[in-house]
User: What shape does this take?
Amino acid sequence: MPSYSGVWTLPAVMQAIGSQNWPSYVAPIGLFLGGSPATNVIETINIASVGNATDFGDLTSTTRTAAGCASSTRGIVGGGIVAGLRSDVINYVTFSTLGNSTSFGTLTSVRSSLAACNSSTRGVFAGGFDGSSTVATIDYITIASTGNATSFGDLTIGRSEPAGCSSPTRGVFGGGSTSVGQNVIDYITIATTGNATDFGDLTSTNTGAAACASSTRGVFGGGNNDTSAINIIQYITIASTGNATDFGDLITPEYVLTACSSPVRGVFAGGVDAGFAALNIISYVTIDTTGNATDFGDLASAKSAIAGCSSANGGL
Assistant: This one.
């Protein structure tokens, strides 16, 4: 291993040895990008371990209510409220290199409170709020390149604050809000284009939940049921269609949280509680089992409306 004078965080190790020499057992990196109170900070975790998040770098501007997706090499963040204004900006980071984000391109429209998912090659952004109404817009990018997003199709219902996750072939978007919470789940085939198709329903109306996945199972955690924050975790089998099933509970009721995953673990972070207080909680579940979430560690500060992504999510 080359000499290194800093702390051996996972990205530092990967940067030192060079991406072409990464061993197959390199642990998955999770990123938490931006958030509210408005921040440009990017934090990172090793999903396979437990512990507090550490600094990765900075976004180009303060960013909240954006959406994140990723390949095994790049993390992407798009849309949201950027420097106080609703935005179409897309930025990216390279997982193997600690550092600040770089401009990628723009979405097809300006919007915040959207969702995202990915395959190994494509990132897909869906829904959101354009400043006057909720939108059904779905657009996509090719993660390995840079450039502007291309139109993909539409959700079955335009809505803000849906939650997105994926297998290598299917993207799934659950919940969200029109003027009231929705329990609808839509799906797309990521490698094609076209409108989303009805998948089934969440266990209740749900706005501001977070979703993550293995290659087979999607997990939705937290949210708001139009009355208060909830701690419910529920899951679907992505290759089939049907309604969500109870999985367990988060440590505390929370919504406007974020999530990321490895093939084994789903990790939930941040959000606000029933009293609208921001949280620094990070918790995790084992995706292919059921049960309550377990404490993972803490974010550097309490915040909500964070974008999350990882280098080994269910879409890869």
